[in-house]
Design goal:
By secondary structure, this protein is α+β, with helices and mostly antiparallel strands. The chain has two domains: 218 residues, PmbA/TldD fold (2-Layer Sandwich); 223 residues, no CATH class. Helices cover 22% and strands 37% of the residues. It has ten helices and 19 strands. The strands form four sheets. Strands 3-2-1-4-5-6 form a six-stranded antiparallel sheet. Helix 3 runs parallel beside helix 4. The longest helix has 17 residues.
Length: 448
Amino acid sequence: MLTTEQAQMRAADIVALSTAAGADAADAVYAADTALDVSVRLGALEDVGRSESAELGLRVFVGKQSASVSTSDLSVDALAALVDRAIAMAREAPEDEWAGLAPQERLLHGAPPQLDLDDGGDVEPAALKEAALEAEDAARAVSGVTNSEGGSASASRSIWALATSHGFAAAYAATGYGISASVLAGEGGQMVRDYDHHGARHRHRLMSPAEIGRGAGERTVARVNPGMVKSGAMPIVFDPRVGSSMLSHLIGAISGSSITRRTSFLLDSLGKRIFAEGVTIADDPHRPHGLRSRPFDGEGLPVSPTEFVRDGMLETWLLDSASARQLGLEPTGHAARGVGGNPGVATSNLFMAAGHLPVATLIEDIADGIYVTEMLGGGANGVTGDYSRGAAGFRIEKGEITTPIAEFTIAGNIKDMFLALTPANDLEFRYGSNVPTLRIDGMMVAGA
């Protein structure tokens, strides 16, 4: 794999070739990745997989016409042909008045911030096998576990570089490690499954394989012999592992493309209350060794911590340069792109701030409700906000989480759900998007 300096040079070189060949402007992405995955099942090695990839994506502009191409053939002749093909394609493309590079005056200047994303580790397959076996063994050791879907461990390292024809060039590297286990409990047609997993940028920050395995086993056994639930309106409490889906509905509704196309249920909500008082939702791209930290966005703009929702009020849209131009606003530093196509928008380390109530206090007045630990299918209508998903979890009776339940649907409207949402105080930064335990009153439940 190239160094970050070599990756940056590779992207910058093809941009220079493009402008020399007649492009008015260009940007390029170089992305390389090496990954190693080991999986085990029932105490035996099941699979070892190693992958290596390197790709280069080029976007060129001829006036307001543009084209994007990508390749994994990085030879000199192939890159020269790629430039010629991209420029020819752009000259045949329709004009787009909003297209173009990010504003030059907004580009990140100077060295990108150092976010401690790369621990430089090089893990041997034997070490990953040992971790996977330990996770599965711990899961299978939980009383009541009857079978296993396996354990796995992974390690990867990636490099991402971006260069533009108006003066930006930078690159960064990141490592990633993961451990997971998935097991079953119960017998015959009544078997249930669950899992646990953890990921980290630095290997020493991973939870122990034994802890992951125990978590998977205990989650699974708790779900054995699920009952049914009656239909009606009741409070729903979301486990943090599934509650983060609420953030995805918000981000989809405030992204630039949804606003410019007028396909968002929050279309007229900027500057208005969309959550209850005290609810804050933020994004922190500078979080050290964060799973989604990044030193600059997909167009070369600086990134910074942003509060999308402050004390329940919607503060901003998520805008790349094209959507910002269309709306007459400034890009927000949330552009994201791969090796192909135009930039879109994406968050980094997204989270809902912790509330003030312990989980026990959050549920103590619920006489009849549901604690949701799994959601299936469905989702939210991005235009209307209508929401319906299959779910599984546990009954809440007289303020206590009690017996497992399954095969029911929860429904409502996202706008109403946001306003009725109360966060607990148990926020942990464990995933790419994180929320505390969430309570939403008045949701409709349909049992089987």
